[in-house]
Design a protein that fits this description.
Blueprint (H helix, E strand, L loop, with lengths): L6 H9 L2 H13 L4 E4 L9 H16 L3 E4 L13 H12 L22 H13 L3 E4 L3 H13 L15 H9 L5 E4 L6 E6 L3 E6 L7 E3 L7 H11 L4 E5 L6 H11 L5 E5 L2 E2 L15 H6 L4 H9 L14 H7 L10 E2 L2 H14 L2 H14 L9 H14 L6 H8 L11 H8 L4 H13 L6 H15 L3 H13 L7 H8 L1 H18 L4
Parallel strand pairs: 1-2, 8-9, 10-11
Antiparallel strand pairs: 3-4, 4-7, 5-6
The protein binds one RNA strand of 76 nucleotides through helix 6, strand 6, helix 8, strand 11 and helix 13.
Length: 522
RNA sequence: GGCCCCAUGGUCAAGUGGACUAAGACACCGGUCUUUCAAGCCGGUAACCCGGGUUCGAAUCCCGGUGGGGUCACCA
């Protein structure tokens, strides 16, 4: 209970100045009381499908001044993976999502791990049991599996036989006395229909006769998903259940639980799924589909956020590059599409390149730092002077990089001298006659330049080119190869000026020697 | 197989009965710029799943088919 909602506080409202009073009233009206949640199961890492569901919940909450809640559905102790919870939380945070209530942040409706709420489920299950809306089932999993198999063979829909639904109190007592453990099933009416009013899909009707008495509590006292989910959504006052479409067919069952328990129904919105390029549901075999993997491949969270938002949602116009603020401002479930989307890494990569190109250099520096460290280009946190240098490097190479990994690769020769010469370049450029001499003359031309800037070094080189009567490329290409080991890269004079005189002269000399030592007589 | 959802270029996607000879983006192809490669700029190829209806008029509404997807656990 919020302290501010206490009675004494309310009284003071009447004594508030009119303006303040109205502002507060307006706030309470504007704040719609929207509460949404993302409820992952810590059985693996967060893949982009889950991330997109989390994102849409987040966007809806922020767009409606509501609250975004993180809840962990960790009731499957068998499949639970150590560290998965931390991983999911790290991924969500990296993506730029933050929640108002959750297992790590706390909140008024906690605990936010289902494993810590078992008593609540037990109590709610008891309520249904004593009201006769649910009943104990003594069938063993093996028996049930056999029945399903039989039904499958006969071509029937696998449904629970209803064997335990009519057990007399005496029969139950006997089973209990024999030490049998029981699961709990919900009594599902076999007539009528259950209707899902979906904010995205409209009215979806399910015949109750297609449903059977499903299990809400396992025999070990742990609730099943369809039960725990409903109890929590109700107790946590969730107003909008926004989740992937794969849950649409669970919804009638959950509505039945809501009704049996006497809870108000939240609104439902089933967002389209994200499919792999082979049109199938995302899974391990599709390779890198995890948020952490994209992170490791050098995608910026800004780009993934933007890309994921555009998968199934559109601002309605031609804009592709949208900041998270813009997306939050414009997001609406009305604009969410109904059909599944196939994710396309190429578009993500393009978006990433756009962000790499336009993000403030400070931000790029921060994002690139771990990659530079991993590549051994930098140690720890660089000193101010070195940071300045790194930022200049980033500025000159970033338009060519689509990921931070590419960026790191393209920046490598600015930090280390031990690079190899590109073999194709060696063939095409270093093998030309007279190259060592050319490089030495280039070195001489640069040696006297002061200050060693882009314009000054270029002027010196142009002068030499004129003097020798050769084409610019004849000097520029060997120089680039000598200085960077590569045949492609930023404008040569940007590289020269950044590298500085000492390193340029040294690398030109070394290349000339290397050619004479390795390519002579060939 | 039962139930449910969906259907505009290869992919994302605008479109909500006339402004559609159907936007835009990615990818692809060409051109331009240039010392290279990118980026940028300019241009091009490429789509309303099929069949019936309703209507003066259908990408848009209805029905049927086909195709794709999801789901049918003491998993979530």
């Amino acid at each position: 209970m919020r302290p501010s909602a206490s009675g004494s506080n309310c009284k003071t409202w009447k004594t508030l100045p009119l303006k303040v009073y109205f502002r507060r009233r307006c706030n309470t009206i504007i704040s719609s009381g929207v509460r949404v949640r993302f409820a992952p199961s810590p059985t693996g890492s967060l893949h982009i499908g889950g991330a997109r569901t989390a994102l849409f919940n987040y966007l809806f909450a922020r767009a409606n001044r509501g609250r975004f809640i993180l809840r962990l559905e960790d009731t499957d102790f068998e499949r639970r993976i150590e560290g998965a919870e931390e991983g999911i939380i790290a991924s969500l945070r990296w993506l730029g999502l933050d929640w108002d209530e959750g297992p790590d942040t706390g909140g008024e409706y906690g605990p936010y791990r289902q494993s810590e709420r078992l008593e609540t489920y037990r109590r709610e299950s008891e309520r249904l049991l004593s009201a006769g809306l649910a009943y104990p089932c003594y069938c063993t999993p093996e028996e049930l599996a056999a029945e399903r198999e039989e039904a499958r063979k006969a071509g029937r829909a696998p449904r629970y036989s209803g064997r335990c639904c009519g057990l007399t109190p005496e029969a139950r007592a006997a089973k209990e006395a024999a030490g049998l453990r029981h699961a709990v099933r919900l009594r599902v009416p076999q007539t009528g229909q259950t209707v899902v009013e979906d904010l995205i899909r409209g009215t979806v009707v399910f015949e109750n006769a297609t449903l059977d008495d499903f299990i809400i509590m396992k025999s070990n006292g742990v609730p099943t998903y369809n039960f725990a989910c409903v109890v929590d959504d109700a107790m946590m006052a969730i107003t909008h259940v926004i989740r992937a479409e794969e849950h649409l067919s669970n919804t009638p069952k959950q509505i039945l639980v809501f009704q049996a328990l006497g809870y108000h129904l939240p609104s439902f919105a089933h967002v389209p799924m994200i499919l792999a390029p082979d049109r199938a549901k995302l899974s391990k075999r599709h390779g890198a589909t995890g948020v952490e993997e994209f992170r490791g491949q050098g995608y910026l969270p800004e780009a993934l956020f933007n890309y994921l938002a555009l998968l199934g949602w559109s601002p309605g116009d031609e804009r592709e590059l949208l900041s998270s603020d813009e997306i939050v401002r414009e997001f609406s479930l009305d604009a969410v599409s109904k059909h599944a989307a196939i994710y396309d890494v190429q578009k993500l990569t393009w978006l990433n390149s756009q962000y790499i190109n336009t993000v403030p250099l400070e931000r790029l520096f921060e994002a690139a730092l771990p990659f530079f460290r991993d590549a051994g280009l930098l140690e720890e946190v660089p000193a101010a002077a070195e940071k300045e240098y790194v930022i200049r490097v980033l500025e000159t190479v970033r338009s060519r990089a689509r990921t931070l990994v590419e960026l790191t690769d393209m920046a490598a020769y600015f930090f280390r001298d031990d690079f190899a010469y590109d073999p194709k370049g060696v063939q095409k450029i270093f093998r030309s006659p007279g190259v060592p001499d050319l490089l030495r003359r280039g070195s001489e031309a640069l040696s006297g330049v002061e200050p060693f800037g882009v314009a000054e070094t270029e002027a010196a080189y142009r002068k030499l080119i004129d003097f020798l009567g050769i084409s610019g490329g004849a000097l520029i290409h060997p120089t680039r190869l000598a200085l960077t080991g590569r045949t492609v890269g930023p404008g040569l004079f940007d590289v020269i000026a950044l590298l500085g005189k000492e390193r340029c002269l040294e690398r030109l000399r070394r290349a000339a020697d290397w050619i004479e030592g390795n390519l002579v007589n060939q």
